[in-house]
Write a structure and sequence with these properties.
About 25% of the residues lie in helices and about 30% in strands. The N and C termini lie far apart (about 40 Å). Helix 2 packs across helix 3. By secondary structure, it is an alpha+beta fold. Strands 1, 2, 3, 4, 5 and 6 form a six-stranded mixed sheet that branches. A four-stranded antiparallel sheet has the order 10-9-11-12, sandwiched between helices. Strands 7-8 form a two-stranded antiparallel sheet.
Length: about 260
């Protein structure tokens, strides 16, 4: 079954077309809706074709980590809901969810997306903790890029909650007008390799034929801030250079949706 699927995908790619008629380096339509959750400090719904995810940002006051006493805290969690794909199961996050969360987290951290020093309330004592939760609503392929885009959109939408004189968050009060201190808006583009062909934004069936993939985090200036290799096949230096070039060229397509 796998070999037949792989052969069919390669046959299409060699002709410069995809299952849905797209070109190899063409994304499905991308749309972003902000403020979809009234209870979150920031939220967004992202659709890439039929793939749909929602992200929310919750803020809390917290003690800084011992090794970063003058920086705010960040945590990313991804949950792949069974309603979005029958292959996903209830319970603790599985391997795919954990990998997506790590890669999203890495893109945000390594790009210095958030000015973490501006999240300090009392140096060494109290900082803002930024918690990003991403959930899948429908999976038709390429959850990685969709989740990364949703996380950034939710951060962009976020407003700090009110803090009382006792340094406690008042979640019942209206949010302030103060936005999160965002320095950059990185996006992630996952480039797929099958045989000698490269393509982006895979459909679910195309993902089953993947030999190797590379997720590339890219800033507004086209600077590569993060890389994550996936799948079993090795990549040569030439492959890596080509895949990074593809990601850098396509990144503005995703960023424009923001």
């Amino acid at each position: 079954m796998y070999q037949e699927l792989k052969a069919h995908v390669l046959k299409c790619l060699n002709k410069g077309v995809r299952y849905d008629g797209r070109k190899p380096l063409e994304f499905r339509p991308i749309s972003i809706e902000y403020g979809v959750s009234a209870s979150a400090e920031g939220s967004a719904r992202v659709r890439i074709g039929g793939t749909e995810v929602i992200a929310g940002v919750k803020m809390e006051t917290a003690t800084p980590y011992p090794d970063t006493p003058n920086q705010g805290n960040l945590m990313v969690n991804v949950e792949l809901l069974p309603m979005s794909n029958p292959k996903f199961e209830t319970g603790p996050p599985g391997q795919q969810a954990n990998e997506i969360a790590r890669v999203v987290d890495r893109g945000i951290r390594e790009s210095k997306c958030i000015s973490v020093h501006d999240l300090v309330i009392k140096p060494g004592e109290l900082v803002w903790g930024v918690n990003i939760d991403v959930c899948s609503l429908n999976d038709e392929g390429n959850l990685q890029d969709a989740c990364a885009l949703a996380a950034i959109a939710a951060l962009k939408d976020a407003r700090l909650p009110k803090v009382t004189e006792h340094d406690e968050v008042d979640y019942d009060a209206p949010k302030t007008d103060q936005k999160l201190p965002l320095a950059r808006l990185p996006v992630e583009v996952t480039v797929i390799k099958v045989g000698d062909q490269f393509f982006v934004d895979p459909l679910s069936d195309e993902e089953m034929a993947i030999e190797a993939r590379l997720t590339v985090g890219v800033t507004e200036k086209g600077t590569v801030c993060a890389l994550q290799k996936g799948a079993e096949a090795p990549l040569s230096l030439e492959d890596l250079e080509k895949m990074v070039d593809i990601a850098v060229k396509i990144a503005p397509t995703l960023r424009n949706a923001l």
